[in-house]
Amino acid sequence: MATAxxxxxxxxxxxxxxxxxxxxxxxxxxVLYGVSGFSFLLLGGIEALLIRTQLAVxxxxxxxxxxxxxxxxxxxxxxxxxxIMPMGASFFNYFIPLMIGARDVAFPRLNALxxxxxxxxxxxxxxxxxFGGAPDGGWFAYAPLSSEDYAVxxxxxxxxxxxxxxxxxxxxxSLNFAVTIINMRAPGMTMMRxxxxxxxxxxxxxxxxxxxPVITVALAQLYFDRNFATNxxxxxxGGDPILWQHLFWVFGHPExxxxxxxxxxxxxxxxxxxxxxxxxxYAAIVFAGVAIAVLGFAxxxxxxxxxxxxxxxxxxFSASTMAIGVPTGIKIFNWLGTMxxxxxxxxxxMYFSVSFIALFTIGGIxxxxxxxxxxxxxxxxxxxxxxxxxxxxxxxxIMGIFAGIYYWFPKMTxxxxxxxxxxINFWLMFIGMNLTFFPMHFLGLSGMPRRxxxxxxxxxxxxxNMVATxxxxxxxxxxxxxxxxxFKTMRQEPTAGNNPWDGATLEWATSSPPPEHDFDVIxxxxxxxxxxxxxxxxxxxxxxxxxxxxxxxxxxYMPLIMGFGVALIGIGALSHLAMTGLGVAVVIYSIxxxxxxxxx
Amino acid sequence: xxxxxxxxxxxxxxxxxxxxxxxxIFLASECLFFGSLISTYLIYQGESxxxxxxxxxxxxxxxxxxxxxxxxxxxxMVLAVYGAQHKEFLMMKLNLLATIILGxxxxxxxxxxxxxxxxxxxxxxTNQFGSSFYLLTGxxxxxxxxxxxxxxxxLIGSSRRNxxxxxxxxxxxxxxxxxxxxxxxxxxxxxxxYLIPS
Lengths: 600, 198
What we know:
The complex is a heterodimer.
Chain A: E1 2-3, H1 17-22, H2 26-55, H3 65-100, H4 108-127, H5 155-183, H6 196-228, H7 241-275, H8 282-296, H9 311-339, H10 348-370, H11 373-379, H12 383-413, H13 419-445, H14 462-490, H15 530-536, E2 550-551, H16 558-574, H17 577-596
Parallel strand pairs in A: 1-2
Helix pairs in contact in A: 2-3, 2-4, 2-14, 3-4, 3-5, 3-7, 3-12, 4-5, 4-16, 5-6, 5-16, 6-7, 6-8, 7-8, 7-10, 7-12, 8-9, 9-10, 10-12, 10-13, 12-13, 13-14, 16-17
Chain B: H1 18-43, H2 54-57, H3 60-85, H4 89-119, H5 128-158, H6 168-195
Helix pairs in contact in B: 1-5, 1-6, 3-4, 3-6, 4-5, 5-6
């Protein structure tokens, strides 16, 4: 039985809206991130469907160029920052404490704050549609198109402000998770006994901690260029638009590893369980993940091969880009080695995981091609790149996330998503995804440029565009099947026990869903696969004590209030200084309240 | 009895307190933050199309004085941390106050310098020197300002009935990390902007 101390100024309800608004429980915050992230996935999907509908036929009339530019910009921003990253954060939040044998993250209120700031940033950025137009310069916002001369109006200011706020949220969350994983592991949980998902999490956190500051500086410089007449990216005064590209991609490339590594971690958890075999080559997978992250900081100019770089930098970045294929390949072979000789159970989660391996490999192959500057000269800014990025981000990241959803759904809700509907969901997504994106390789090789709102007939692009659009609708239908599965399942009674899949890691050592305090007794870890080891060696789990005086951090208003203050600061940066001042005042008030409120 | 709330002396896997570890990792991100700003300044050195130029404006003797003030504030910070760790709270409070005053004096120097430069015609928008100099040193000054507020809060907190509690040493040490970092960044800025070009 958990107790929580309260005071007059602190909330004390256990249910209802206020519970969710003031929670500092990592599981609830994980759910908040997950629901938000999935909602934005749907929004990003609608943006994509509009794009595909426009491109279904030559000279389409569904969207004009203006709106088209906003849609492809926001589709990318939505998917990257408001769908994939938050869904990753959802799993980090829910499972870090459970997998390392802790009861919460290191800083529960900071955790809640990260979510509320995320929501502020996401709403600020998305609201741009109704406040004069969404950003329309691509998610990468190259200068000088992003300058006040060419990007008239406030759309690109929504871009800078929205991303700075979102970046702040990610940075706080990353600091929190890094400290938690390093410092709060259960007895016996050495670093080399951490689940691979935890290793990928900590690597992702460090990628963000080191890359977010760079884009923050770039965004500040762009904001100042647009609003305070500085000259960072304007050639007329001696500025260099290429500086923007460097700063952006020093962040942007590690960012794509932020997007893929969590899913790589998820399938590293799912494959062993449904192969009934320990992960093959644990150490190699861990070191490969770290190597990918380190190398990921050394490849950014492969996005700039066509900007007039000198030959030596091109060679260097080409070499480092191809080198990343090595640790990635190590992971692929280790996943295959995990399944080989195993007793495979074909659950939906397993389907998504296996498809990850195949689809991500396809994306990786096209990626290595881009790594060659002469080849990239043809491929840059064509649909070949669109094919690559969607194979790695949809075929990789999204399929991995769905594997995680199906795998961990019983743990989080006590219910099993229906397997038949799950398989239909999977096949529709798999077929839809391939129909949509495989033809884009052909479109790119035959010269169809990216980011064009329409195309003429007679280039040989008509048929494949139609196929891609049909594929996108099949994919969308698959998502609808998932939603149907979700709502149907949530109406059922919870039936799942602690460890329905016979998993090996610590989250399966507590009830489904876990109690508020996660573990009745903090487990002691003797092996990399703790539950399998204890089962195979007949180690009895300790009895929970008669009375559990577990002290949990109380709920708090302060993260919500501070999040609101940050939102005001952001809104003020888009409108009036007075609003920013009010936001700063609210933030200061909330810091004062935060520091002074009792947490014991 | 198990505790989910972490505070000083609570067991951690590394032996380092969670808040201390977080400050260290946060400072790593701050290295990248200032690194990007300094890189921008270096890239645009010599690229201004119009004046005023650094050689005409930068006043090394005066800025050396302000640098000395900031360095001294790090000395007083060390003494404040020592005081907190050894429960000599008068020493802690006096040195905290001294650090706050010295930090504020440094900020005063910055305000005077910026005002001088503006009078000589250097604005954010004037040229590359203006843009990159004001953004870099302005953001650094903001960090010093936040540090001063941080230290004032600790000073106010230590004046309460229970003071800063049993965590006083830890809290001061963490603040000290931040303060020294901001000082080190200034040393780098001072060297790169003022000393090397001359």
